[in-house]
């Protein structure tokens, strides 16, 4: 693979550089509740600005329906980006209309502008190449070069990610480069022992990753909501826990394949249950039960203390770890201990430790861990997973000359 870096674009002074960033942060009204993605995106934007470029940032927020929707405006993001870059960020109130044109025309060398949510234009996510291409033409007209730095969207064949890259000299930003480097170390010749920890809500979301990593990892630890389909596949009752009946056969096959190939699948031996899913006014009543004796009227909401200790022990001495998916309903303190234990164990790994997935990254921050306690926290859940499934990423392939 031969992909340009920003330095390969030559002298950027006075050049208009379009950057695709991932600024898709959670909002509560207009308050940003986790600015991790803006912080991760700021260095490349600042690097371009410091080089004298006129920087035009493209990004999306949420899933508006191809039309302007104030609930998904990037205006609050522009304000925070400005603080993090350390200079004013001009905000265009549309994507390619009058405001965007005036904003771009008004840039001086080193200035930064942010266009309004690109998903306000139906061309951004259109499946029709011509409709996407027409929007990409309008975006590309703003720039002399394109830098792809939104790792969270590189698995999407979308106008500001894919089609713009076809229309301008292009390079990958430092964020995308770092993500690709880490993902390569997880898939090509990983240092051993290599332990993969999977959790989260659904097995079906993660099947292809399990499939691909079963052939590479030495151990696979399974927790979270997906564990109950594995326990059921072993013949255990799981009460009212999350269960995907249509995946039982696949889970059984994975257990068999792992046994045949010497990969150790570690399942929890105890589970924290309650009689109802946590909700607003109800006080949680966590109870620890054996994983082989989950009462019919209960549902599993976290791995138990013995399992937490076993998972931590299984991570001791690992040289490569990939973790995706919380071990329990970490949003509620009574069911956060398993996730905390795994996070804690990852901080002690002497080697490469990677946290992937939006909720997993939010979990470690919410539980009070600092980003630098881990080798790498991936900003792009879906993109990392697709790479780890062995799929091609259109937004990366398009940069390869
Ligand atoms: P990520 O975004 O890191 O890939 P997922 O989206 O797959 O993770 O899963 C995160 C969600 O899984 C969290 O909201 C968490 O509450 C939920 N979860 C974890 N364990 C359970 C469980 N036992 N039952 C139901 N939901 C669970
Ligand atoms: Mg998620």
Q: Any overview of this molecule?
A:
With 401 residues, this protein is α/β, with parallel strands linked by helices. It is built from 14 helices and 17 strands. Helix 12 links the parallel strand 16 (352-356) and strand 17 (376-377). Helix 1 (36-50) packs across helix 2 (75-85) and helix 8 (227-233) crosses helix 9. The protein is elongated, with a radius of gyration of 23 Å. It starts with 15 loop residues before the first strand and ends with a helix. The mean pLDDT is 96. The structure holds adenosine-5'-diphosphate and magnesium ion.
Radius of gyration: 23 Å
Helix content, binned percent? 25-40%
Number of DSSP helices?
14
Major sheet strand order: 5-6-4-1-7-8
Proportion in β-strands: 15-25%
Poorly predicted tracts of residues: none
Number of strands: 17
Mean pLDDT: 96
How many strands, which pairing sense, and closed or not: the largest β-sheet?
6 strands, parallel
**Oligomeric nature of the chains:** single chain
Global morphology? elongated
Kindly, what is the distance between the CA atoms of the first and last residues, rounded to a whole number of angstroms? 8 Å
Bound molecules: adenosine-5'-diphosphate, magnesium ion
Key words describing this protein structure:
401 residues; alpha/beta; 6-stranded parallel β-sheet; 14 helices; 36% helix; elongated; binds adenosine-5'-diphosphate; binds magnesium ion
């Amino acid at each position: 693979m031969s992909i340009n870096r920003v330095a390969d674009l030559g002298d950027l002074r006075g050049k208009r550089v379009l950057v695709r960033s991932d600024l898709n942060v959670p909002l509560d009204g207009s308050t940003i509740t986790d600015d991790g993605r803006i912080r991760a995106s700021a260095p490349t934007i600042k690097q371009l600005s410091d080089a004298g470029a006129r920087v035009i940032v493209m990004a999306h927020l949420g899933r508006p329906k191809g039309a302007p929707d104030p609930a998904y405006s990037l205006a609050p993001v522009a304000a925070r980006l400005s603080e993090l870059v350390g200079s004013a960020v001009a905000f265009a109130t549309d994507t390619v209309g009058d405001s965007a044109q005036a904003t771009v025309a008004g840039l001086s060398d080193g200035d930064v502008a942010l266009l309004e949510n690109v998903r306000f234009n139906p061309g951004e996510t259109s499946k029709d190449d011509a409709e996407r291409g027409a929007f990409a033409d309008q975006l590309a007209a703003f720039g002399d070069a394109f830098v792809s730095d939104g790792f969270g969207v590189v698995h999407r064949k979308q106008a500001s990610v894919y089609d713009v890259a076809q229309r301008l000299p292009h390079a990958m930003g430092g964020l995308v480069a770092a993500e690709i480097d880490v993902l390569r170390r997880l898939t090509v010749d990983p240092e051993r022992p290599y332990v993969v920890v999977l959790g989260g809500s659904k097995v079906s979301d993660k099947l292809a990753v399990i499939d691909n990593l079963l052939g590479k990892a030495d151990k696979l630890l399974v927790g979270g909501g997906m564990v109950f389909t594995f326990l059921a596949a072993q013949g255990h009752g799981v009460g009212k826990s999350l269960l995907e009946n249509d995946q039982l056969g696949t889970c059984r096959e994975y257990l068999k394949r792992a046994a045949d190939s010497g990969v150790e699948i570690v399942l929890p031996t105890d589970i924290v249950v309650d009689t109802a899913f946590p909700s607003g006014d109800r006080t949680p009543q966590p109870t620890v039960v054996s994983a082989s004796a989950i009462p019919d009227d209960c549902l599993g909401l976290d791995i138990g203390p013995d399992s937490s200790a076993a998972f931590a022990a299984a991570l001791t001495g690992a040289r490569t770890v990939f973790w995706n998916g919380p071990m329990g309903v970490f949003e509620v303190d009574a069911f956060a201990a398993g996730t905390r234990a795994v996070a804690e164990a990852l901080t002690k790994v002497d080697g490469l430790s990677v946290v992937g997935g939006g909720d997993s990254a939010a979990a470690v921050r919410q539980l009070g861990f600092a980003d630098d306690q881990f080798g790498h926290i991936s900003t792009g859940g879906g993109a990392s997973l697709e790479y780890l499934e062995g799929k091609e990423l259109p937004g990366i392939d398009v940069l390869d000359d």
